[in-house]
């Protein structure tokens, strides 16, 4: 007897062009979608379709989306609702998360973030959540299966050292502090440590401290009690309690607000959690792994990160090397990914031509393993097969190949040729890397030297800007 088809996704978006784009992306990814343009139509489809995953724009023409979401959760408490909001109304997203939303998306967002949120909502396991498992929980790989991801492919000395350190530290209870640039595989490293530990059968809970609004972070980490604040319609255990018996992974730890750093320090000292609104703490048994793409010691010097918390967490450091420092691994990773993606897409590729191999080795890969995997996926999806030649490479890679491979990219990068330009004519003829630096530094200058304000203007995370400034040797 075949399993019943899952209920369709429900998309409620009143802007026709956006509804069409969202629907197309979802259907291409294999989802069945029902779409509505108003709250009334959305509620009707919600009741008729049995949808358990809903994408809901909070700004609807006939009523407030937040009220609609609360009604849906009353009718179907197991529903996973992803709210969509504009950057100017981020407070609405915070309010929605407190009221029970599964996730939120802030316009504009890219396809990967969009599909990732949907996959997480649809693949959360049982549609009725366990009272001890928050929606941010992600299952660890089975303990008898090693984490075999592309980021760990490679025979370079740098990766051998990482693998040896993971093997040594995994069986212990020691706190691990993972550093490395974006895209180097810090979360996969954390998963590998968890999978090789005695806690492998326990939960692996991952939280991105930079992606969750600060107003919500305390509730996400430590939980809250029903009625502890406006919109707290039910108890929420929090990630620390959900990780009891397993591992809590705190990504982008240096983005955590100072007030929450104090509470995290107390949690590490006492092994107890106290949800917002609770009168008594609860003892938990959790191993902490954290990660950052910033220099944590520099964050301490800037006053962004507590020194006592730094020394409490920085017990066993693991540094994930950037791909440019292990160029000999690039081909191994690329060929492995080509074989895997071709199998997934039903294509037949012979391999990489000698020219492409040389280009891959010469490219600096600023996005690291993640960028390399995206390039291979792009090639497989847009081509029918055969040998991967230069003509198959995406345009973004061609632009990067204009710059020489060994141009200094980290702290000693050359300064722009001229003072920061303020008109377009002065940008013509410069490399993309120079233009990026000019725009970022000029934006920071025009915002009074504030990286946080500039990050909002540029729609980049503060950690990304700090990392780039450090690469350029700019003191902030």
What layout of secondary structure does this protein have?
Blueprint (H helix, E strand, L loop, with lengths): L8 E4 L3 H13 L4 E4 L2 H11 L3 E5 L7 H11 L4 E7 L3 H9 L4 E5 L3 H12 L14 E2 L18 H13 L6 E4 L6 H10 L8 E5 L5 H9 L16 H4 L4 E5 L6 H13 L1 E2 L8 E2 L3 E6 L3 H7 L4 H7 L2 E4 L10 H16 L2 E5 L1 H9 L5 H15 L2 E4 L6 H6 L31 H15 L4 H8 L3 H10 L5
Parallel strand pairs: 1-2, 1-3, 3-4, 4-5, 7-12, 7-13, 8-9, 9-12, 14-15
Antiparallel strand pairs: 6-8, 10-11
Helix pairs in contact: 2-3, 13-15, 17-18
Features:
476 residues; alpha/beta; Rossmann fold; Helicase, Ruva Protein, domain 3; 4 domains; 6-stranded mixed beta sheet; 5-stranded parallel beta sheet; 42% helix; 13% strand
* Coarse morphology: globular
CATH class wording of the largest domain: Alpha Beta
Task: Report strand order across the widest sheet.
Answer: 6-8-9-12-7-13
**Integer-rounded radius of gyration:** 23 Å
Q: Could you say how many structural domains there are in total?
A: 4
What structural category characterises the helix and strand content? alpha/beta
- CATH superfamily descriptor of the largest domain: P-loop containing nucleotide triphosphate hydrolases
The overall pLDDT, averaged over residues, is: 79
Q: DSSP helix count?
A: 19
Ends apart, CA distance between termini: 64 Å
Number of distinct beta strands: 15
CATH architecture assignment of the largest domain: 3-Layer(aba) Sandwich
Largest sheet: 6 strands, mixed
């Amino acid at each position: 007897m075949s399993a019943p088809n899952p209920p369709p996704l429900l998309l409620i978006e009143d802007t026709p062009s956006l509804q069409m784009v969202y629907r197309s992306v979802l259907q291409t990814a294999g989802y069945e979608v029902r779409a509505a343009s108003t709250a009334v139509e959305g509620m009707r489809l919600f009741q008729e379709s049995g949808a358990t995953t809903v994408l809901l724009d909070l700004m609807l023409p006939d009523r407030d989306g937040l009220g609609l979401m609360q009604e849906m959760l009353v009718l179907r408490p197991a529903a996973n609702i992803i709210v969509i909001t504009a950057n100017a109304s981020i407070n609405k997203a915070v309010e929605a998360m407190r009221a029970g939303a599964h996730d939120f998306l802030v316009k504009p967002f890219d396809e990967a973030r969009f599909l990732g949120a949907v996959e997480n909502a649809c693949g959360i396991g049982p549609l009725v959540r366990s009272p001890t498992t928050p929606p941010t929980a992600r299952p660890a790989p089975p303990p008898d299966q090693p984490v075999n991801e592309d980021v760990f492919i490679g025979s370079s000395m740098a990766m051998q050292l990482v693998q040896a350190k993971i093997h040594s530290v995994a069986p212990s209870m020691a706190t691990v502090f993972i550093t490395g640039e974006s895209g180097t595989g810090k979360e996969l490293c954390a998963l590998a440590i968890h999978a090789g530990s005695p806690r492998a059968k326990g939960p692996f809970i991952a939280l991105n401290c930079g992606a969750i609004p600060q107003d919500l972070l305390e509730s996400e980490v430590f939980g809250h009690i029903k009625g502890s604040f406006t919109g707290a319609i039910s108890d929420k255990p929090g990630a620390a309690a959900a990780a009891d018996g397993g591992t809590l992974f705190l990504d982008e730890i240096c983005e955590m607000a100072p007030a929450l750093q104090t509470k995290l320090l107390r949690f590490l000292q006492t092994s107890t959690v106290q949800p917002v609104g609770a009168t008594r703490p609860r003892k938990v048994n959790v191993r902490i792994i954290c990660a950052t793409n910033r220099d944590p010691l520099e964050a301490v010097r800037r006053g962004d990160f507590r020194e006592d918390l730094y020394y409490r967490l920085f017990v066993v450091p693991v540094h994930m090397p950037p791909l440019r420092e292990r160029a000999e691994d690039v081909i191994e990773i690329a060929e492995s990914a080509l074989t895997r993606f071709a199998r997934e897409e039903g294509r037949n590729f012979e391999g990489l031509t000698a020219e492409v191999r040389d280009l891959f080795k010469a490219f600096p890969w600023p996005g690291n393993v993640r960028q390399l995997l995206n390039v291979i996926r792009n090639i497989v999806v847009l081509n029918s097969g055969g040998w991967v030649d230069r003509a198959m490479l995406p345009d973004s890679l061609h632009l990067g190949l204009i710059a020489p491979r060994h141009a200094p990219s980290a702290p000693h990068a050359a300064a722009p040729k001229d003072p920061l330009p303020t008109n377009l004519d002065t940008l013509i003829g410069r490399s993309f890397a120079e233009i990026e630096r000019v725009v970022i530094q000029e934006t920071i200058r025009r915002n009074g030297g504030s990286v946080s304000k500039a990050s909002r203007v540029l729609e980049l995370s503060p950690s990304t800007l700090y990392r780039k400034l450090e690469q350029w040797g700019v003191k902030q």
